[in-house]
TrEMBL record:
It comes from the Bacteria. SUPFAM superfamilies: Trypsin-like serine proteases (SSF50494). The lineage of its organism: Bacteria, Pseudomonadati, Acidobacteriota, Vicinamibacteria, Vicinamibacterales. It comes from Luteitalea pratensis. This is Serine protease.
Length: 135
Protein backbone atom coordinates (compact mmCIF):
# COMPACT_ATOMS: atom_id res chain seq x y z
CA UNK A 1 0.00 0.00 0.00
CA UNK A 2 1.33 3.42 -0.96
CA UNK A 3 1.77 5.93 1.84
CA UNK A 4 -0.05 9.26 1.79
CA UNK A 5 2.27 11.79 0.06
CA UNK A 6 1.74 14.37 2.81
CA UNK A 7 2.64 11.85 5.52
CA UNK A 8 5.68 10.80 3.47
CA UNK A 9 6.80 14.43 3.20
CA UNK A 10 6.37 14.96 6.95
CA UNK A 11 8.38 11.78 7.66
CA UNK A 12 11.22 13.04 5.44
CA UNK A 13 11.03 16.48 7.05
CA UNK A 14 11.47 14.91 10.51
CA UNK A 15 14.82 13.46 9.36
CA UNK A 16 16.24 16.87 8.35
CA UNK A 17 18.76 18.37 10.78
CA UNK A 18 17.41 21.15 12.98
CA UNK A 19 19.47 23.90 11.34
CA UNK A 20 18.74 23.61 7.63
CA UNK A 21 18.60 27.36 6.97
CA UNK A 22 21.34 29.86 7.62
CA UNK A 23 21.01 33.63 7.77
CA UNK A 24 22.65 35.26 4.75
CA UNK A 25 22.26 38.85 5.92
CA UNK A 26 19.59 39.69 3.33
CA UNK A 27 16.05 40.65 4.26
CA UNK A 28 14.17 38.46 1.80
CA UNK A 29 11.01 37.90 3.79
CA UNK A 30 7.68 38.15 2.02
CA UNK A 31 4.53 39.46 3.70
CA UNK A 32 1.73 37.00 4.48
CA UNK A 33 -0.41 38.65 1.82
CA UNK A 34 1.93 36.98 -0.73
CA UNK A 35 0.35 33.64 0.25
CA UNK A 36 -3.15 35.10 0.07
CA UNK A 37 -2.47 36.47 -3.41
CA UNK A 38 -1.13 33.09 -4.51
CA UNK A 39 -4.26 31.36 -3.20
CA UNK A 40 -6.51 33.89 -4.95
CA UNK A 41 -4.71 33.29 -8.24
CA UNK A 42 -5.28 29.52 -8.03
CA UNK A 43 -9.00 30.15 -8.58
CA UNK A 44 -8.27 30.78 -12.27
CA UNK A 45 -6.52 27.41 -12.75
CA UNK A 46 -8.47 24.32 -13.78
CA UNK A 47 -7.96 20.64 -14.47
CA UNK A 48 -9.17 19.72 -17.96
CA UNK A 49 -10.41 16.17 -18.53
CA UNK A 50 -10.84 15.33 -22.19
CA UNK A 51 -11.30 12.32 -24.39
CA UNK A 52 -10.53 12.18 -28.05
CA UNK A 53 -7.58 12.16 -30.37
CA UNK A 54 -4.50 13.19 -28.44
CA UNK A 55 -1.65 15.34 -29.74
CA UNK A 56 0.13 12.24 -31.10
CA UNK A 57 -2.89 11.34 -33.24
CA UNK A 58 -4.01 8.38 -31.12
CA UNK A 59 -7.84 8.29 -31.02
CA UNK A 60 -10.07 7.66 -27.97
CA UNK A 61 -7.57 8.71 -25.34
CA UNK A 62 -8.54 9.98 -21.88
CA UNK A 63 -6.28 12.87 -20.96
CA UNK A 64 -5.84 15.26 -18.05
CA UNK A 65 -4.46 18.72 -18.69
CA UNK A 66 -4.49 22.22 -17.22
CA UNK A 67 -5.78 25.59 -18.31
CA UNK A 68 -6.59 28.93 -16.73
CA UNK A 69 -9.05 31.74 -17.10
CA UNK A 70 -7.67 34.82 -18.81
CA UNK A 71 -10.90 36.80 -18.89
CA UNK A 72 -14.60 36.47 -18.31
CA UNK A 73 -15.59 33.10 -19.82
CA UNK A 74 -12.25 32.75 -21.63
CA UNK A 75 -10.04 29.74 -20.98
CA UNK A 76 -6.44 29.56 -22.17
CA UNK A 77 -4.63 26.27 -22.69
CA UNK A 78 -2.22 24.71 -25.17
CA UNK A 79 -3.44 23.62 -28.61
CA UNK A 80 -2.62 19.94 -27.98
CA UNK A 81 -5.05 19.98 -25.02
CA UNK A 82 -8.05 20.88 -27.19
CA UNK A 83 -6.91 20.14 -30.75
CA UNK A 84 -10.41 20.25 -32.25
CA UNK A 85 -13.87 21.67 -31.65
CA UNK A 86 -15.08 18.14 -30.86
CA UNK A 87 -12.40 17.74 -28.19
CA UNK A 88 -13.39 21.11 -26.68
CA UNK A 89 -17.09 20.17 -26.70
CA UNK A 90 -16.39 16.95 -24.79
CA UNK A 91 -13.92 18.42 -22.29
CA UNK A 92 -14.79 19.07 -18.65
CA UNK A 93 -12.95 21.78 -16.69
CA UNK A 94 -12.75 21.31 -12.93
CA UNK A 95 -12.01 24.39 -10.89
CA UNK A 96 -11.03 24.22 -7.20
CA UNK A 97 -9.53 20.76 -7.78
CA UNK A 98 -7.36 20.70 -4.68
CA UNK A 99 -7.05 19.54 -1.10
CA UNK A 100 -8.35 21.67 1.75
CA UNK A 101 -6.68 22.37 5.09
CA UNK A 102 -7.75 18.92 6.36
CA UNK A 103 -6.11 17.30 3.29
CA UNK A 104 -9.54 16.29 1.98
CA UNK A 105 -10.68 17.11 -1.58
CA UNK A 106 -12.62 20.35 -1.83
CA UNK A 107 -15.89 20.71 -3.73
CA UNK A 108 -15.13 21.41 -7.36
CA UNK A 109 -16.92 23.48 -9.96
CA UNK A 110 -17.31 21.53 -13.21
CA UNK A 111 -17.67 23.46 -16.46
CA UNK A 112 -18.53 22.14 -19.90
CA UNK A 113 -16.94 24.25 -22.62
CA UNK A 114 -18.97 25.90 -25.39
CA UNK A 115 -16.50 26.43 -28.24
CA UNK A 116 -19.25 27.03 -30.82
CA UNK A 117 -19.94 30.43 -29.26
CA UNK A 118 -16.61 31.72 -30.57
CA UNK A 119 -16.21 33.65 -33.76
CA UNK A 120 -12.47 32.94 -33.96
CA UNK A 121 -10.36 29.84 -34.63
CA UNK A 122 -8.20 30.61 -31.60
CA UNK A 123 -8.07 28.06 -28.80
CA UNK A 124 -10.18 30.27 -26.58
CA UNK A 125 -13.58 29.07 -25.49
CA UNK A 126 -16.49 30.37 -23.48
CA UNK A 127 -18.06 28.40 -20.66
CA UNK A 128 -21.11 28.05 -18.48
CA UNK A 129 -20.52 27.11 -14.81
CA UNK A 130 -22.10 24.02 -13.28
CA UNK A 131 -21.69 24.43 -9.52
CA UNK A 132 -21.89 21.58 -7.03
CA UNK A 133 -19.75 18.94 -8.77
CA UNK A 134 -17.40 16.95 -6.63
CA UNK A 135 -14.03 15.32 -7.31
Amino acid sequence: MQQDPVAEFLDRLAEVPERVELANGLRNFLPVCFLELGLANTRAVCKIDSKGTNFEGTPDQECTWTGFLVGRNLLLTNHHVLPSLDAAREAICLFNFQLGVTFSPLETIGIRLQPDRLTSRLTLTSSTPNRGSSN
